[in-house]
Design brief:
Layout (H helix, E strand, L loop, with lengths): L6 H7 L10 H21 L1 H11 L3 H23 L5 E4 L6 E2 L11 E9 L10 E9 L10 H4 L8 E7 L3 E6 L4 E7 L4 E6 L10 E3 L10 H11 L8 E2 L5 H11 L2 E4 L12 H14 L3 E3 L19 E4 L1 H12 L8
Parallel strand pairs: 1-3, 9-10, 9-11
Antiparallel strand pairs: 1-2, 3-4, 4-5, 5-6, 6-7, 7-8, 11-13, 12-13
Helix pairs in contact: 1-2, 2-4, 3-4, 6-9
The protein binds 2,5-anhydro-1,6-di-O-phosphono-D-glucitol (AHG) and manganese (II) ion (2 copies).
Length: 339
């Protein structure tokens, strides 16, 4: 267990490695750590609440699920707002970004955060892992003024930190500040995260592909061709198919075991489904920091200049050699790049 280093200790010890080490980013990461424990506690009780709920109200299951999405959003928003540690928040669950005034309405906090508070939430009612994803940038507008949309519309390669929490068989917080990827596992008995997975690296090759193959008929030809390649009988193929339906969990498994996650464009979702700012950019930053790759099939995800807060893009993310192979197939259909 790496001499039992806790997340709190790790954040303090590594503050100096960060180029703008005023301590603000450390406090921000500590706030995420706190909010994640609160959400973890609630997610763990979801089944119990269900049992109690169905006894009294036949409708409670659907309502509860919806509540958990909203609940996770509220916990992260409230924690970050109360601690006045960011100057703005954009959440997948909010229509627009939220301006945080800060102490004495000074607007002098440096960072904005973008979050997917509960990823894979449709999995809650069947006891399958869900997650939280976050992405942090330095604001580009001057300190002392309210944040604007411009502060959130930055390409992913300007992220200063990104990470996720996976509420799984054990709960883990995995993050990067640009110096590799570190994974911490929660000891639920005492509510403390310990460094369990230092310096996580994607295997360069893998034998897992993860995508919703049910939509095969709607996929672009490049994706169909790559899938055929994955399923061919060769020395190291066919690959295994694994798809949980929670990006966080699918990504986490692939990062540890080696694999590729794909959510392509389709005739049903012409821009793809996953959101650039809350899902694709943070995962792309983590992937690259772990030696993997992230592409929209043609371009590096981290170089896409966002145009909309809730913008969707296709994503191919995972082990380097697998993503590059998928890109080779996509390159045969350059006209599909104009999604
Ligand atoms: P969210 O719950 O935040 O809306 O995200 C769900 C996403 C992602 O986690 C998952 O990989 C994908 O949706 C699954 O989509 P399909 O059901 O279309 O496969
Ligand atoms: Mn999501
Ligand atoms: Mn979500």
């Amino acid at each position: 267990m790496n001499n039992h280093i806790t997340l709190g200790e790790y954040i303090i010890d590594n503050q100096k490695d960060f180029q703008y080490s005023s301590g603000e980013l450390s406090l921000l990461l500590s706030s995420i750590r706190l909010a994640s424990k609160v959400v973890n506690h609630e997610v763990n009780k979801a089944g119990l609440v269900d049992i109690l709920g169905t006894a009294g109200n036949t409708n409670i299951q659907g309502e509860d699920q919806q509540k958990l999405d909203v609940y996770a959003n509220e916990v992260f928003m409230r924690t970050l707002i109360n601690r006045e540690i960011v100057c703005g928040i954009a959440s997948e669950e909010e229509d627009d970004f939220v301006i945080i005034e800060g102490k004495n309405k000074s607007h002098d906090n440096k960072y904005v955060i973008l979050i997917d508070p509960l990823d894979g939430s449709s999995n809650v009612d069947v006891n399958v892992s869900v997650g939280t994803i976050f992405s942090i940038y330095r604001r580009v507008t001057p300190l002392g003024t309210p944040v604007t949309k411009e502060d959130f519309m930055q390409p992913g390669n300007l992220q200063v930190a990104a990470g996720y929490v996976v509420y799984g068989t054990s709960t883990m917080l995995v993050y990067t500040t640009g110096n590799g990827v570190q994974g911490f596992t929660l000891n639920p008995a005492i509510g403390v995260y310990y460094l369990s997975h230092p310096n996580i690296k994607f295997p360069e090759d893998g034998n897992i592909y993860s995508l919703n193959e049910g939509y095969y008929i709607h996929f672009p030809q490049g994706v169909k061709d790559y899938l055929k390649y994955c399923q061919e009988e060769e020395e190291d193929r066919p690959y295994s198919a694994r798809y949980i339906g929670s990006l966080v969990s699918d990504f986490h498994r692939n990062m540890i075991k080696g694999g590729i996650y794909i959510y392509p464009t389709s005739s049903k979702a012409p821009q793809g489904k996953l959101r650039l700012l809350y899902e694709c950019n943070p995962m792309a930053f983590l992937a690259e920091q772990a030696g993997g790759e992230a592409s929209d099939g043609y371009r590096r995800i981290l170089e896409i200049k966002p145009t909309e807060l809730h913008q969707r893009v296709p994503i191919f993310v995972g082990s380097k050699n697998m993503v590059n192979k998928a890109k080779e197939f996509m390159a045969n259909y350059p006209e599909d790049a104009k999604y």
